[in-house]
Amino acid sequence: MAKSGDAKRNQLSAQDWLLAAIAAMAKGGVENVKVERLAKGLGTSKGSFYWHFKDRKDLLDQLIRYWVTQGTEQVMATNEREETSPHDKLVALFHVALKEPVGTLSSAQGEMAMRSWAMVDPNIAQTVSETDQQRIDYVTHLFAELGYSQERAGTNAHQLYLMLLGYYARATYAPNAAKAAQESILAALSDMMTARSI
What we know:
Layout: H1 4-11, H2 14-28, H3 35-42, H4 46-52, H5 56-81, H6 86-99, H7 107-118, H8 122-146, H9 150-173, H10 178-194
């Protein structure tokens, strides 16, 4: 008969640990991501951690890949599978970017946790910068599909992305302003899509 600790270890997935790591990072930076501390927060032992990861470095390596895959590649793939117009894809994309939670965190908290890591690790900074560009390129593509010139599509994408980053930053220290900021970005998106000048 399996012990309760074994059952708990088998119930926790790698994703549970990754989301716990992002939450820890949001509270105290990458230095706050400690195996023993994560285990305590998850109500399990360190043995559960080693079921999924070789060591802390492996956890961090998988964490950045998880963020890129789930927060960008998977979002874009899901959006592209929908047989909708570029207009509807843009709206859906920004709803995800603004409102989709990251485990127990808001989208803003999850994003800023990764960006705080980028501030202290050049390799992570490069990955975050490349991911930013990948996202901007995708939004540019959707605006181009709406009929914008490539230049105008790129300008719109950059402007919206900078607004999004500003929202992420502000929402982490002024969460009461988050809803109004979300609506402002969605209004700016709507204006760009309905009052375009090609």
